[in-house]
Design a protein that fits this description.
The structure holds 2 protein chains of 2 kinds. By secondary structure, chain A is mainly β. Chain A is built from no helices and 11 strands. Chain B is an all-beta fold. Chain B is about 0% helix and about 60% strand. Classes of the chains: A mainly beta, B mainly beta. Chains A and B meet through strand 5, strand 9 and strand 10 of A and strand 4, strand 5, strand 9 and strand 10 of B.
Chain lengths: ~120, ~110
């Protein structure tokens, strides 16, 4: 079954408003979660790494004041898109590391994604 | 940085075998992943390679050559439901927190 959930699965908002997306790890603690954005017919682009209890690490070109990330507990990270604009319309996906693989790395489980449409 | 390259689109026939290639350049290689993604859905894990060689999982196999910066995903006995995007992703330990960096994805269409 699913190990990472996201809410909402889709949202439509008006330009200029803010939208919060939740990412939860189910039945396990995730000190680190990742937020990705995916435009139609394109691959996933890492936006930021969310660290429990500390500030998120943003990838180059991602505005931290526009995409606010909060990782207040070991099972929840939130992404808030502030003052959304139509160009922010995209598929937002979170993920969390769980389970060690050979070589010491972790398998990354993805949430089901949130489709954001800004009108 | 990471340069991950894979073909944009491929078409194959039901029942056939298809190989999807991926080349990468990264300074701190710590594993290569293949994910399957159906339109509008999150990626699902298919395979992981950290050492050279072939990993087999049922109809899916993945190969890695670290010296060549090359991997492929092999899909056998293709089914219509295999029509999806296949994402090659590399983990780079130098970026911290075991981030995954994705290629552009290969959109596979399986035809009858």
């Amino acid at each position: 079954g699913a190990v990472v959930s996201q809410h909402p699965s889709w949202v439509i908002c008006k330009s200029g408003t803010s939208v919060k997306i939740e990412c939860r790890s189910l039945d396990f603690q995730a000190t680190t979660m990742f937020w990705y954005r995916q435009f139609p017919k394109q691959s996933l682009m890492l936006m930021a790494t969310s660290n429990e209890g500390s500030k998120a690490t943003y990838e180059q070109g991602v505005e931290k004041d526009k995409f606010l990330i909060n990782h207040a507990s070991l099972t929840l990270s939130t992404l808030t898109v502030t003052s959304a604009h139509p160009e922010d319309s995209s598929f937002y996906i979170c993920s969390a590391n769980r389970g060690r693989l050979a070589g010491g790395t972790y398998e990354q489980y993805f949430g089901p994604g949130t489709r954001l449409t800004v009108t | 940085g990471q340069n991950i390259d894979q073909p944009t689109e491929m078409t194959a026939t039901e029942g056939a075998i298809v190989q999807i290639n991926c080349t990468y350049q990264t300074s701190g290689f710590n594993g290569l992943f293949w994910y399957q993604q159906h339109a509008g859905e999150a990626p699902t894990f298919l395979s992981y390679n950290v050492l050279d060689g072939l990993e087999e999982k049922g109809r899916f196999s993945s190969f890695l050559s670290r010296s060549k910066g090359y991997s492929y995903l092999l899909l056998k006995e293709l089914q219509m439901k295999d029509s999806a995007s296949y994402l090659c992703a590399v983990r780079d330990w130098r970026s911290g927190a075991n981030n995954l960096f994705f290629g552009t994805g290969t959109r596979l269409t399986v035809i009858p």
